[in-house]
Amino acid sequence: MPPRVTVVGTGHLGASHAACVAELGFEVLGVDNDETLIGGLSHAEPTFYEPGLGQLLRRGLDSGRLSFTTSYQRAADFGDVHFICVGTPPCTGSYRADLSYLNACIDSLAPLLRRRCLVVGKSTVPVGTAAQCAQRLAQLAPAGQDAELAWNPEFLREGCAVPDTLHPDRIVAGVASARAEAMLREIYARPLADGTPFLVTDFATAELVKVAANAFLATKISFINAMAEVCDAAQADVTVLAAALGHDARIGSAGLRPGLGFGGGCLPKDIRAFMARASDLGAGQSLAFLREVDAINGRCRSRTVDLARELVGGSFGGHRVGVLGAAFKPGSDDIRDSPALDVATAVQRLGAQVTLYDPEAMDNARRNCPDLKYADSMMEAARDADVVLLLTEWQEFRDADPEIMAKVVAQRAVVDGRNALDPARWRAAGWRYRALGRN
Ligand code: UGA
User: Fold this and answer.
1) Which atom of ligand 1 sits closest to the CA of residue 393?
2) Which residue's alpha carbon is nearest to atom 24 within ligand 1?
3) Looking at CB atoms within 10 Å, which of 74, 269, 314, 387 has the fewest?
4) pTM for this one?
5) How far apart are CA 53 and CA 435, in angstroms?
């Protein structure tokens, strides 16, 4: 009998994991306390935007392999492998990761585990957490040694969650026994057959791989954005610089797109939590550079506001600003720590009347920033604007026709916060075009 799988915590990561593991052929039960979330997923309607996930959920539900519940008891009775996918947001008032959801999850599940099973952590955690979870599991599970822990970090990107989960670029298995490794190999048999590298390690290394990867990605983005600052000082062009660097195979062009910098629910909070954890371990100095990575990233936002202010003549007072984008990146409706929304609210605070449009993140943006004005389309956001800010590079914005947009704006002025437009084309249509690192 193939192992039966539960996925505890059905947010972005958990819902994608549950649907994908069902797609791999396993029986999967998704578990969450949030009835709205479970209600939506049970009808193949996730409460968040993720391309392809709705269809995959539908296939899983129709096949009978995928179902959802709010009952931990059902999960404990059902599962041979329990994946833990709960969130680890920042603590209020500190950089540390809030582990209360993870601890609550172990405390609810463990006392119900009466038979042989593997509990697999996927959440992003401070190094040392897995060892504590293992201890807690041993104390609480009636199954004793038969309820074992493994740590298997997840590397999926929002907007690419389905392909990233079905075809991961590596699988990291933090295990304490051959049995745990064998179980994980069985679950991931299909990607392993496709040649996905499988790295077996201890808990601490597995936990660190995840935060180190995100720290590296953040550093790469801030590196190119620091180069943009230097390009501005030297009157050079950072997009050409980035393209030229990217041809060096040791550097690579992925994750080297200059612009407004990184946001979202992962990179910003993960580098901060990593610094806090390293500091607790006495290794704070080793990650001191991440403070600079974070500072450069913050400056991308304030410098974008400055570019826009320059274009309206030095002060936002009485000016209309059309903002294109609210999500932290295209392909997502996530506005957590979104650079776009941060810039939009800063500009409004400085006296502008902001009108914003995003193809997917409108509801979330409205809920979080009710004081901004919202338009139903890109052209409506641009209507009568003294300056247009492109802050999330949705394809629809990339494809915008400068001749057509010129007809609705008050002034032809654009800030390309994501280097998504062709400056020559916009300038030819009479626009004043600005982007960080290209002036
Ligand atoms: C990130 C990692 O890429 C995933 O591997 C990881 O699993 C995930 O965090 C997580 O920890 O859960 P994600 O936050 O979905 O994934 O987004 P990315 O695609 O990495 O983009 C992050 C931010 O960096 C976005 O705001 C994006 O606009 C920005 N970015 C990305 C750039 O400014 N330049 C680039 O070249 C790439």
Assistant:
1) 28
2) 262
3) 314
4) 0.97
5) 34
Active-site residue among 133, 266, 300, 369?
Answer: 266
What's the token pair of residue 300? Answer: 């991308």
CA dist list (Å): 61 to 8, 19, 79, 249, 420: 17, 9, 17, 43, 39
Is 428 exposed, middle or buried (CB count within 10 Å of its CB: 0-12, 13-18, 19+)? Answer: exposed
Q: What are phi and psi of 171, to 5 degrees?
A: -120, 125
Share of the chain above pLDDT 90, in %: 99
Cα dist from 239 to 216, 227, 339, 435, 438, whole Å: 20, 10, 19, 10, 8
Give the type of residue at 117: C
CA separation, residue 39 to residues 33, 36, 64, 67 (Å): 11, 5, 16, 11
Nearest residue to 296 (alpha-carbon basis) of 258, 264, 254:
258
Ligand 1 centroid – CA 212 distance (Å)? 14
> Which tokens in the block code for residue 86?
């709960």
Question: Is 266 among the catalytic positions?
Answer: yes
